[in-house]
Specification:
heterodimer, A: 79 residues, 3 helices, B: 284 residues, alpha+beta
């Protein structure tokens, strides 16, 4: 279970850090925040590729959902 | 009761079917509640995930529609992402606590240790690939006490006591070890290559079993040296471990035997600093 804790801690720390940096930069677009979060979550998940298959399946589902949200944000930006 | 639910033509009356439908719905509702309570009582990941989910929804909705604060909405979204991750991981936490698994492991080792000690076995175990031990990688403990290593060329029967040669003293016991079960957990057996073995060991020890931080593999065709970093599994000094090696060494030996498709024996194992070193010899 230790590896899961490390993974969750890394994702949490990255998301928190991103929020602080973007707020400090005066970012006011929610799409930018959301896109940054998703890219970070996907990259960290890929780095922990050696989880057991059941965990990987669950995280793949989460990644697919988040990616779907990311595509919606991009579509809204284009439109 | 039977008279109540059966009609004259042998079928069920309308009232009875309605009653059965109500009972079925109640049973489904109860089983739903039961599975929800099981989900909640399972682990801290579920609780943390649900907490973040509720807090994330409340914060992001109120921040977006009420307070009109982008950064707070973003915080809520981040909490939602984390909650999805935690809920996905919560399904993979084993139902049995680690203490119970440790208890079962120790009981099994104690039983085999008693048997090995009673038989007075002094020889080192030979870890056989599944092709030589009837479908699963197992460890062969020769009963003789001479120093020559047995040469096994054909598959042994799946029995406890097996004859592996033509001489009368070429008898041994075939045991299932921690490595046998660990190899079953892998999706694919690695190729006989040290780099691939290393990546599989890291995935197994760190990602699946959670017993070490990583592993490094060096060596050639016949000698393989594995360094397991920060192992969290300690073995007691017992007769079992003298013959079969430590639990982690046993897992490594089974995996190497399976990858190389050749018998393997543990030459040496030692704890050095924060690492556990295992030296293996791949036999002909």
């Amino acid at each position: 279970m230790r590896i899961y804790n490390v993974y969750v801690l890394i994702v949490s720390a990255l998301l928190m850090l991103t929020t602080v940096i973007l707020v400090a930069l005066g970012q006011s677009s929610l799409a930018v925040y959301y896109s940054s979060y998703i890219i970070e979550a996907l990259v960290v998940t890929e780095m922990f590729a050696y989880f057991i298959p059941k965990a990987r399946r669950g995280l793949n589902l989460v990644s697919a959902t988040l990616f779907g949200g990311f595509m919606v944000v991009i579509c809204l930006q284009i439109i | 009761m039977l008279r109540q639910i059966q009609c004259n033509n042998g079928g069920y009356s309308e009232g009875t079917l309605k009653g059965l439908g109500v009972r079925l719905r109640e049973t489904k509702r109860l089983s739903g509640l039961l599975s929800l309570s099981r989900l909640l009582s399972r682990n801290s990941y579920t609780w943390a995930g649900l907490g973040l989910l509720i807090a994330g929804v409340l914060i992001s909705v109120s921040a977006y529609f009420l307070f009109l604060l982008t950064w707070l909405t973003a915080m809520g979204v981040a909490m939602l992402i984390l909650s999805f991750i935690l809920l996905a991981l919560s399904r993979t936490i084993p139902k049995l606590p680690p203490e119970v698994s440790g208890l079962l492991l120790e009981t099994g080792i104690d039983n085999i240790s008693s048997m090995v000690e009673e038989l007075g076995i002094q020889a080192q175990a030979i870890y056989l690939p599944s092709s030589l031990s009837g479908g699963r990688p197992q460890a062969l403990l020769p009963l003789h006490s001479n120093s020559s290593l047995p040469i096994i060329t054909k598959a042994l029967p799946r029995r406890l006591i097996v004859r592996y040669g033509v001489n009368p003293d070429e008898v041994g016991i075939l045991l299932t070890t921690a490595g046998t079960t660990a190899v079953d957990m892998l999706e694919a057996i690695p190729a006989p290559d040290t780099a691939e073995l290393e990546s599989v060991l890291v995935a197994l020890f760190n990602g699946v079993l959670g017993v070490a931080d990583g592993a490094g593999v060096t060596g050639n065709e016949s000698h393989i040296r594995v360094e397991i970093r920060n192992p969290r599994l300690e073995d007691k000094a017992s007769w079992y471990h003298r013959c079969l090696g430590g639990t982690l060494a046993s897992v490594v030996a089974s995996l190497v035997a399976e990858a190389w498709d050749r018998p393997v024996t543990i030459r040496q194992e030692e704890q050095r600093g924060g690492s556990y070193l295992v030296e293996l010899e791949v036999l002909e």
